[in-house]
Amino acid sequence: MTRPAFTEQLRRAQAQADSLLCVGLDPEPAKFPLPWRDDPARIFDFCAAIVDATRDLVLAFKPQIAYFAAHRAEDQLERLVAHIRRAAPQVPVILDAKRGDIGATAGMYAREAFERYGADALTVSPFMGFDSIEPYLQWPERGLFLLCRTSNPGGSDLQAQRLAGGELLFEHIARLAAGPWNLHGQLGLVVGATYPEELARVRELAPTLPLLVPGVGAQGGDAQATVRAAWRADAPIVVNSSRAVLYASAGADFAAAARAAAEGTRVQLNAARGVN
What we know:
The chain is of the alpha/beta class. The chain has a single domain, classed as Alpha-Beta Barrel (TIM Barrel).
């Protein structure tokens, strides 16, 4: 069955779960509960348990490919996406890979994300310009989140540099994504919760684009400040929390603790947008 366009999936998932929360799936076997600890063969089991515990609380899941590839667990990632399709068919999957290449290579990355793993959206780097975006547009029903103003301190090394025309680089990326690059309405932006003023500026420049907002939870981003800066009724925001949910407990109750942490964050986000 053909899935709806990605932005429509986000809107439906947000409405169904009454949620802005995305749970990031960054499995670290060293943090798994006993008796799974330090066992990469249990990556699927751990992530599937998190999915099952939180599937009605989220508008997206975001597996980070490096945590699977580092353990030769790409097959487990394929199984995980298939599991999400069965257990939570209404929840889109954002593959966090931050790909950044051009031409045929970018086309292969697109096939990897959209055909092999079946992701609904992908994170990409726009550093090489529109050439690094165009190959992904051959999948018009899939989404792309372009790195714009990232949550890490070193992001300022480039993203906060002022261009000859007076704009900061991240502002220029936001304008391009909201304008000439967004040929099929597929594009969104990655903007960190750790920079709420810049987040508000991106929302001003890209008033209707979906925003993927990492940095809430373990990285210190404030949920209420994030929503105040970026929330618009007609523009989805996808607020990601990974470690604070995944590793809420190191015991046998890890899935129940993950659910409680996800529900707590969901409530905070909804309160910030005036929803009980």
